[in-house]
């Protein structure tokens, strides 16, 4: 039987369904008997779902980057 540490190491592969049939069976058996790992996998799935639902960040124009850098570095002169 898989150990909890192995469950956490294989969690991404399990949620992405890239485990072999045998690995997936062992994984599922562990989840049936271990509430801590069930909670861990549920939280991982929720986190992945939220991350995928986030909008793609928009790239800043060069002029915007220059303005942010100028603002961040202004006022930081040694006294
Ligand atoms: Zn466990």
Helix content, binned percent: over 70%
The largest pleated sheet is described as: none
* SSE string, helices as H and strands as E: HHHH
Mean pLDDT: 91
Q: Determine the N-to-C terminus distance.
A: 64 Å
User: What is the rounded Rg?
Assistant: 22 Å
Please state roughly what percent of the residues sit in beta strands, choosing from under 5%, 5-15%, 15-25%, 25-35%, 35-45% or over 45%: under 5%
Sequence stretches where pLDDT stays below 50 over 5 or more residues: none
Shape: elongated
Helical element count?
4
Quaternary status: single chain
What is the total tally of β strands?
A: 0
Q: How would you describe the overall organization of this protein?
A:
- This protein has 79 residues and is mainly alpha-helical.
- The chain has a domain at 4-55.
- It has helices spanning 4-15, 21-33, 35-53, 62-73.
- α1 (4-15) runs parallel beside α3 and α2 (21-33) packs across α3.
- The model has no long low-confidence stretch (mean pLDDT 91).
In a nutshell, what does this entry contain?
The chain has 79 residues and is an all-alpha fold. The protein contains 4 helices and no strands.
Search tags:
79 residues, mainly alpha, 4 helices, binds zinc ion
